[in-house]
Design goal:
alpha/beta, 368 residues
């Protein structure tokens, strides 16, 4: 009996120890263990990563242009650089806008002289025109500095000045006349054509020489000892033929293309100035356009000025003297150029320095 009780106690102790051992083991979850998170860089297969890195970015959508047309007028006839430039603007504008912007061209002064088309820009009766920059001087006297004789070294110097910071400063006042300058194009070397040979500076004394109406050009003619006669370019041929004038200051290219050599057959090669043309637009018209239309118009005029027009202008200068000689004109080389320069310098001191500061003139001369 006693042995049976002892056996029962031993069995009970063993069972208690077994239960205590089972309770001390960590609990096992029946759920599958959660996988550890993969690094972000390994989320996509390697081939997908290569494809993503090599894919080209989507092209930006082409700008949308408002459909429109505008008129562009100028004075030069076929063969003149402005004719080449104006026609290039028409073609390039259509190409750049896929035909959305159409340019109607009016060459040969059919809408009026340069002074008249410039005024039409101001009054918003004509959208755009190509005018000699000396026309702009009529409303911006401070711009007259560009007409000073012997200021520019050559045509490139002149265009670098006018298309840069100095030109922008000088033309800023155009906004007050509701005019927007679209571009500045290179112009012609300016000389004087006469109805008689000129062998010395003193031979100009008393001659009636046509000039534009701007003050500086008038003063230049006076510095020659001549009598300035202000008139529009379209009146020059008839006035010379009838003897109303004995000569004209002129772009050498226009002397040939407009047949002025027929009535003023002596080209006095003074090369006293290197001109330019300004493409002007009606401020009311231009400012009414969308930003994208404004941008493409400015881009096309600037590009044509640096390419088609510039090349035509340089080509014409390379050929013009031979063409004039073949047509019967006489090219008079100047042997006493110092006398002309000295006379011009006197006008600098007496008149032009008060209007155009020495600092501005020096700044222009130092432009490369």
């Amino acid at each position: 009996m006693k042995n049976n009780k002892m056996l029962a106690l031993i069995v009970t102790a063993i069972l208690c120890l077994s239960l205590l051992s089972a309770c001390s083991q960590p609990a096992q979850s029946s759920a599958a263990p959660a996988p550890s998170a993969a690094p972000a860089s390994s989320a996509a297969p390697a081939s997908s990563a290569v494809e993503a890195s090599s894919a080209e970015p989507e092209p930006e959508p082409a700008p949308e242009y408002d459909e429109m047309s505008f008129r562009l007028a100028w004075g030069g006839v076929e063969g003149h650089p402005n004719y080449t430039g104006g026609m290039a603007v028409k073609d390039r504008m259509a190409e750049a806008t896929d035909g959305a912007i159409t340019v109607e061209t009016f060459p040969g002064a059919v809408l009026g002289s340069e002074a008249q088309t410039f005024e039409m820009n101001r009054t918003n009766t004509l959208e755009a025109s190509i005018v000699n920059t000396s026309i702009v001087v009529g409303v911006l006297p401070e711009l007259g500095v560009i007409n000073l004789p012997y200021l520019f070294r050559d045509r490139d110097h002149a265009i670098n000045v006018l298309s840069g910071d100095i030109g922008q400063r000088l033309m800023a006042g155009l906004k007050d006349f509701s005019i927007v300058p679209l571009a500045v194009w290179s112009g012609a070397t300016r000389e004087v054509a006469t109805d008689r040979p000129i062998s010395a500076y003193s031979d100009f004394k008393g001659l009636k020489v046509r000039s534009s109406s701007n003050t500086v050009t008038v003063s230049f003619v006076e510095s020659l000892g001549a009598v300035p006669i202000s008139m529009g370019w379209t009146d020059v041929y008839t006035s010379a033929k009838t003897g109303l004038i004995n000569g004209t200051e002129t772009a050498v290219t226009s002397l040939y293309t407009d047949h002025i050599y027929e009535v003023l057959p002596y080209d006095i090669n003074l090369a006293y100035n290197h001109g330019s043309y300004t493409v002007t637009a009606s401020g009311a018209w231009f400012n009414s356009l969308s930003d994208t239309n404004q941008e493409v118009i400015l881009e096309v005029f600037d590009s044509v000025g640096k390419n088609e027009h510039y090349k035509a202008n340089e080509d014409m200068h390379a050929e013009v003297y031979d063409n004039l000689a073949e047509a019967g004109a006489t090219i008079v080389e100047v042997n006493d150029l110092d006398a002309y320069v000295a006379a011009a310098e006197k006008f600098y001191e007496d008149m032009w320095y008060p209007e155009f500061t020495e600092e501005l003139i020096d700044e222009i001369r130092n432009i490369k």
